[in-house]
From TrEMBL:
Family, per entry: In the N-terminal section; belongs to the HFCD (homo-oligomeric flavin containing Cys decarboxylase) superfamily.
DNA/pantothenate metabolism flavoprotein C-terminal domain location: 11-216
Domain of life: Bacteria
Gene that this sequence comes from: coaBC
Parent sequence residues shown: 171 to 394 of 394
Segments for region (Phosphopantothenate--cysteine ligase): 15-224
EC number: 4.1.1.36, 6.3.2.5
A molecular-function term among this protein's GO annotations: metal ion binding
Tagged with keyword Ligase: yes
Binding sites annotated in the UniProt record for CTP: 104, 114, 148, 162, 166
Source organism per UniProt: Thermotoga neapolitana (strain ATCC 49049 / DSM 4359 / NBRC 107923 / NS-E)
Protein name stated in the entry: Coenzyme A biosynthesis bifunctional protein CoaBC
Pathway annotation: Cofactor biosynthesis; coenzyme A biosynthesis; CoA from (R)-pantothenate: step 3/5; Cofactor biosynthesis; coenzyme A biosynthesis; CoA from (R)-pantothenate: step 2/5
UniProt entry keywords in alphabetical sequence: Decarboxylase, Flavoprotein, FMN, Ligase, Lyase, Magnesium, Metal-binding, Multifunctional enzyme
């Protein structure tokens, strides 16, 4: 009975999850990216599915196998592609969990061929990417918005600042130096009032379960 009622806590809910890093192209064979493994996002997708949700996973490039069980798997490369694929689905979902480590900057121009090493020095000009989550916050209607904050200092202050600036319902704070490529993670979950839950260091599937438990407690969902 316990399993039946807790496992399907997201029954009837449509959840959009983003995962992994993005790649911003410099030329035909080079790009700027980050160390995100995608594991946390894929774990969230797995557990959300287990809890009965309809799951759309939008993923940057990872070494993980695309999960066969999600309702839709969308593979993207750049932050711009991720932006478009997320926006396309936004009206049709109840919950968005923005776990992807979206690149903050992209090359101002992408060279179509392969850059030759003709010069002694090369300067790359970068420009800001669009903030997907901030845009979701601006366009928020019925959706429940969950962001992540990858910090290295002033943890709580920065996380709360992002929560407010991006108009989020929850933000999951982790230590960027530890979380990115590791198997285990410790997180702190905040709402507008402050800390609501600390999840001690554990493997990412269990932590995903802890996060989704809180989300489902707030958003509800019929248990079937
Ligand atoms: N995010 C996003 N689009 C971006 C950058 C970030 O949607 N272009 C989302 C991330 O998926 C995450 C949240 O915003 O859920 C916070 O990301 P983070 O990198 O911690 O914060 P930034 O707002 O990018 O600020 P900074 O990196 O300077 O701390
Ligand atoms: Ca960032």
């Amino acid at each position: 009975i316990y399993l039946l009622t807790t496992q399907k806590k997201l029954f009837g809910k449509r959840v959009l999850i983003t995962a992994g890093p993005t790649r911003e192209r410099i030329d035909a064979v080079r790009f700027i990216t980050n160390a995100s493994s995608g594991k946390m996002g894929y774990a969230l997708a797995t557990v959300a599915k287990r809890m009965g949700a309809t799951v759309y996973l939008v993923s940057g490039p990872t070494h993980l196998k695309p999960p066969y069980f999600v309702d839709e798997f969308v593979s993207v490369e750049s932050s711009e592609e991720m932006f478009n694929e997320v926006m396309k689905r936004y009206d049709d979902v109840d919950i968005v969990i923005m776990n992807a480590a979206v690149g903050d900057y992209k090359p101002k121009e992408t060279f179509s061929g392969k850059l030759k090493k003709t010069e002694k020095e090369l300067t790359l000009h970068l420009e800001r990417t669009r903030d997907i989550l901030e845009e979701l916050g601006k366009r928020k209607k019925h959706q429940f918005l969950v962001g992540f904050a990858a910090e290295v200092e002033d943890f709580e202050k920065n996380a709360l600042e992002k929560l407010k600036r991006k108009n989020l319902d929850l933000i999951v704070l982790n230590d960027a130096r530890k979380a990115f490529s590791s198997e285990r993670v410790e997180v702190f979950i905040y709402n507008r009032e402050g800390l609501i839950k600390r999840i001690d260091e554990d493997d990412k599937t269990r932590v995903a379960g802890g996060i989704l438990d809180i989300v489902s407690d707030i958003v509800g969902g019929s248990s079937r």
